[in-house]
Each structure stands twice: as structure tokens, then as C-alpha cells.
């Protein structure tokens, strides 16, 4: 979702007769489930990767090590002027370390975001990546300030916006109704969407069950559609007797966005969904103690509540009564971020 707009912008720039940019698309294979990987390539019209490193799953250390070993060989065989990494997953950090050890410059798309929660694996990935990267394409002024505090210079910083929003804006007219809509007779603005995958929420069965019961109770007569992330499947199967929580397999991007577009609100622990709901103007309740995307709270439609279940019930009631804050859209979240990134690349090189 973050890479697709950049590739399109590169190809558009090349067609326009600008200095040509050649690229090599490397899929590490960190996300290997067909519903979470291959379908995104098809739906977002991303070209076939030049290589799939096929690293698969494993512990944090195992996966990071396999990515580094495979990417080192690939980069040595295919040297380049710049390695561009996106987001905050293990692949982001691993490929950054490899590139820098091979004396290759690195640009971090979505650099500078911080939750300040060191229990999140993603936060460690962000800090390591940003400590090594040469250039930073940022989503907010807050991210810029975070980076400046660590010594990043102005000439390394490019406040360009959010490529996630490029994908969302570019595909909004292509969303399609998933099967769960008709199967459960959903009606617009009369159901909630739930996503959970943070270890603190889903790995401990007791915590997970308590959370699900709180969500079910808060939703009352409203249905809650819960596309279950692979890491949550095991515990999700243990949920019994909760009629208003409807479990579904992971959805395609276009199917998921359709559900979000038409729901009353979203309950989540995801980072990206906080951004998407803000842009769409959909109420969002985030079940985490902090967010690396504070602009979704200060400007957008998001509220961060941790594990405050009484507050959860109050906020769901607020959504159902139509009293949620209106929210706005952060600067440069306009669907043109990738074009700004490519323009800066042409200037830099």
C-alpha cells in the first residue's frame, strides 16, 4: 500500500521525459499469506517483484536475520544508488542495516513516527531505521520534530505526506462489497469493524477474551465484523457464545476498505487504520496506550483509550448517537505524496 503509489509515480515521471529512474522491487516475503500479500499486488496493480526473498515467518530475530542474509546477496548482485524502505516492519529495519553496511544510501518513507512505547517491536524498528537512514520522507510535522531532536538535519527531511492515503484515494472508486456483507445482512452505518493483532491484546487468551467481551457489550445490538489476522486465529477460535462478534477470514484491501467506508465506526489496535479512518472521516477507537500517529487524534477522527473498557462503552455510545467529533485531514494527505517523493529523488540525484 505504501510502495504502489511510488512505483506509479516513478513510471509516470519516466513517461513524462524526466531523467529516468530505474528501480528494482524486492519482496522480502515477510508477509507471505496470500490474503495479506499476493492479493495486495493484484488489487493495487503493483508489478511483479523482481525478486521474492521468501523469508517466511519465525521469531523476530530469525525473521530479521533471514531477511538480512537474503537481501545482502541480492543487493550485492544488484547494486543501486538508493535503497528505499517503507513503514516499520522487520523488513524495513533489516534492509536498512544491510544497505548501510554495503555503503548504500537509504531513504525511509514514513520516517520519524514514534509511539514512545518500547514494548512495540515496530518502535524498535523505527528507531534503528531512522538512526541509519540518510533521507526521510515524512507524514507530519510531528515526525519532522522527532527526527530533528535526534540530530537529523533539515536537508535530510522531506515533509511529503502519506503514501497510504495515495493508495486509499486512488482506489476508493474500486472498493467492492465483501461476502460478509450479504452473508450477515449488513446495513450502512449500523455495524462496527474490529481489527486486533498487537501481542499485548491478542497473545494472552485471558486478556483477549476480556477485551472481546468488553467490545461485544459496548456494541450492544450492533454487529461487529472482525477480520481475523493470522496471529489472532488461534485465540479467536476460543470465542464462544458472543453473537454480535462476527469472525471472518482476512479481507482483501478493496473489500476491507468497503467495510470501513460504510461502517458506524472502527475499533482497532492498527496504525494504518487510524490514518485511513481519519481521511475517510470515520470514527476510530484505538485500543492502545499510545499512538505513533498523533495527528489522527489532534486533527482526525481517532481516540486512543488503552484498555479503559468503561471509556470504550462511552465512546461506542457516542458514535451510535452521532455525537463523534468531525475531524479534519492532515496536511499533504491529498493523494499526491508519491509524486512529491519522486520530485525530491530527481532533485537529490
Account of the protein in words:
Helix 3 (60-77) crosses helix 4, helix 4 (90-101) runs parallel beside helix 5 and helix 10 runs parallel beside helix 15. The protein has 2 domains: 4-162 and 332-348, 3-Layer(aba) Sandwich (Rossmann fold); 173-320, Rossmann fold (3-Layer(aba) Sandwich), CATH 3.40.50. The strands form 3 sheets. Strands 9-8-7-10-11-12 form a 6-stranded parallel beta sheet, sandwiched between helices. A 4-stranded parallel beta sheet has the order 3-4-5-6, covered by helices on one side. The protein has helices at residues 4-15, 38-43, 60-77, 90-101, 121-132, 141-148, 163-171, 179-183, 199-202, 205-219, 233-236, 253-262, 272-280, 295-298, 309-320, 337-348, and strands spanning 26-27, 51-52, 82-86, 105-109, 135-138, 157-159, 191-195, 223-227, 245-248, 265-268, 284-286, 302-304. The longest helix is centred in the N-terminal third of the chain and has 18 residues, at 60-77. Helix 5 links the parallel strand 4 (105-109) and strand 5 (135-138). Helix content is 44%, strand content 13%. It has 16 helices and 12 strands. The radius of gyration is 20 Å and the shape is globular. By secondary structure, it is of the alpha/beta class. The model has no long low-confidence stretch (mean pLDDT 94).
Amino acid at each position: 500500500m505504501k510502495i504502489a503509489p511510488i512505483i506509479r509515480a516513478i513510471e509516470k515521471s519516466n513517461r513524462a521525459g524526466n531523467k529516468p529512474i530505474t528501480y528494482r522491487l524486492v519482496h522480502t516475503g515477510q508477509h507471505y499469506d496470500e490474503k495479506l500479500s499476493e492479493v495486495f499486488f493484484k488489487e493495487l496493480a503493483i508489478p511483479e517483484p523482481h525478486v521474492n526473498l521468501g523469508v517466511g515467518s519465525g521469531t523476530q530475530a530469525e525473521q530479521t536475520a533471514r531477511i538480512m542474509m537474503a537481501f545482502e546477496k541480492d543487493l550485492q548482485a544488484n547494486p543501486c544508488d538508493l535503497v528505499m524502505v517503507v513503514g516499520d516492519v522487520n523488513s524495513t529495519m533489516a534492509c536498512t542495516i544491510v544497505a548501510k553496511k554495503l555503503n548504500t544510501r537509504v531513504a525511509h518513507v514514513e520516517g520519524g513516527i514514534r509511539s514512545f512505547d518500547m514494548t512495540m517491536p515496530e518502535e524498535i524498528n523505527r528507531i534503528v531505521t531512522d538512526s541509519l537512514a540518510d533521507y526521510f520522507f515524512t507524514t507530519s510535522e510531528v515526525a519532522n520534530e522527532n527526527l530533528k531532536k535526534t540530530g537529523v538535519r533539515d536537508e535530510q527531511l522531506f515533509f511529503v505526506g502519506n503514501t497510504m492515503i495515495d493508495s486509499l484515494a486512488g482506489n476508493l472508486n474500486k472498493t467492492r462489497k465483501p461476502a460478509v456483507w450479504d452473508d450477515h445482512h449488513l446495513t450502512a452505518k449500523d455495524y462496527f469493524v474490529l481489527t486486533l493483532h498487537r501481542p499485548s491484546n491478542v497473545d494472552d487468551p485471558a486478556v483477549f477474551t476480556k477485551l472481546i467481551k468488553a467490545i461485544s457489550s459496548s456494541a450492544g445490538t450492533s454487529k461487529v465484523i472482525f477480520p481475523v489476522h493470522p496471529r489472532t486465529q488461534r485465540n479467536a477460535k476460543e470465542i464462544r457464545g458472543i453473537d454480535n462478534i462476527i469472525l471472518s477470514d482476512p479481507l482483501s484491501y478493496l473489500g476491507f476498505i468497503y467495510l470501513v467506508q460504510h461502517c458506524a465506526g472502527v475499533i482497532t489496535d492498527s496504525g494504518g487504520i487510524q490514518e485511513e479512518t481519519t481521511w475517510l472521516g470515520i470514527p476510530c477507537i484505538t485500543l492502545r496506550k499510545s499512538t505513533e500517529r498523533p495527528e489522527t487524534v489532534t486533527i482526525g477522527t481517532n481516540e486512543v483509550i488503552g484498555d479503559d473498557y468503561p471509556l470504550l462503552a462511552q465512546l461506542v455510545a457516542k458514535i451510535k448517537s452521532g455525537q463523534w467529533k468531525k475531524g479534519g485531514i492532515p496536511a499533504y494527505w491529498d493523494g499526491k505524496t508519491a509524486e512529491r517523493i519522486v520530485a525530491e529523488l530527481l532533485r537529490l540525484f
